[in-house]
Amino acid sequence: MARKAVICECTSNGIFLVRDCIDQGLDPVVVYPPLPTGEDDFAGRMRRIAEQRIVDLAEVVRPADMNDLVSRLEGYDIACVIAGSEYGIPYADRLSSILGLPGNDPSTTPDRTDKLHMHRALERAGLRHIRTVPVRSDEDVTGFWSRKPVIVKPSASVATIGVHLCQTLDECLEAYREDRGTGGWTGGGVGEIVLQDYIDGPEFIVNTLSRDGVHRITDMWAYWKQNIGCGVAYDCAMTVSEPTDSDRATADYALKVLDAVGMMNGPAHLEIKSDADGPVLIEINARPMGGHFTVGSLDIALGHHITDIALRSAVDPGFISTLPEGIPLMGNMGLKVLIMHESRIVDTAPLHALMSHLDGFRNLQCDVEPGVPTFIERTESLASSPASVEILHEDGSGVMEDFAMVSAIEKRYPDLLYGFSGDRPERMPPSGSDVPPDAGVADDDGLHLPEGGFDRYVVRVSDMPLDRFYDTFLEGLGHLRPYGTVTIDPCVFGVVPYGRKGMTALLMMAGLEFDPISDDGGMTATKVRSERQA
Question: What percent of the chain shows pLDDT beyond 70?
């Protein structure tokens, strides 16, 4: 019988650990600790999604308490205990201590899970930290306020849930009352409500791996967020593939943070800002990085997907020394987290079709089924993002170009991604203009391409679902020779949201140079090669 690997709270990217166990010859045992108020909350929904992906792959245990868990595991040959996501960290610390396996001191667990305690730990260690205070009344909030932007958030939360950037005292008071009056992401309490000074500057993810107090950086990302209303939404993240001296200083600071919070064993995920005074911790999570990443894309960009080497280190004390010191070599990968700037009905069929034609497209993850219009609230946290897109390029500029294009479309022309939000425009018949016999044509019957390449592409679709139009239009464009001409019939403006403006955005996304108006009221464009396509 194979040895067991116990995964505490297997959700988010912790799911990867199940397959990693199997690949490394271990039997995965997934532990779901009791949730304070049952499983009808965010954490419960995350569990149900996870279980659909690990069904028949792992033994699942739902203990009543720690004593019950230890009893159920009696007689197992357990190789390691590892936290699969945030709520499993305290269980993993306690269980590894009871079983005498490598782990982290349960007495210092709050330093790695509670946003108030972790900054107090940094202060004790003499490291730069953010002024963080608990507030229990409106008077506490008023006393902290100093006419500067302030972050209000629960000390125990994930995925930016309950995080508010406040510019005024009134906003600060409103955010405090909102967080105080709602349950935590596990359905229970949110811990203390804390106020922090806002740090302005670039933000980084530093993922690390530790074994017996020896630390290595596994990967590092620069990332950006947007303030939506009073909420904070993740926007995009990109690998730090060409680190600067400032990046290296941030990485060195991250390793000192691990010592300060007692991180001895396992993967950790640190979020750090850097300003004129240098790097400073936002928060640390003693578990694998979450988010909407996939194993295949991470393997290409990093050479691993974080959980696989975390598991290997958990069972092999010498593995950590085989990893390079400093910021490792990484490929150019980005994750664009989509943001809904307003609540609306969403159909993700156009999103799937359009994103698949991005130059660096790798993968799209979306919880909303294509072709099923669904009401989605405005994005105010990572948890409320409708989807995410993985982008891979040989060079970093290509990743940034794709980021910029998707960001511009989602903010200015969201109907291009999610379908018409209002009444569709009146459909127009094709203009009836002549089409050269050697041209490629996209019309209501589909795509008609001459043999070999062609130098003229006529688009005269007047009645077609938006996702099918994207596939038809962009497939034909792919066969057009470089510097060939695209002619857009005016009837297309009744198919594409925002009409001429929407078509302009699509042409720009495809990298075409275009004239705004042709003789018949349509548009013409020229296919050009970008430097990274040449």
Answer: 91
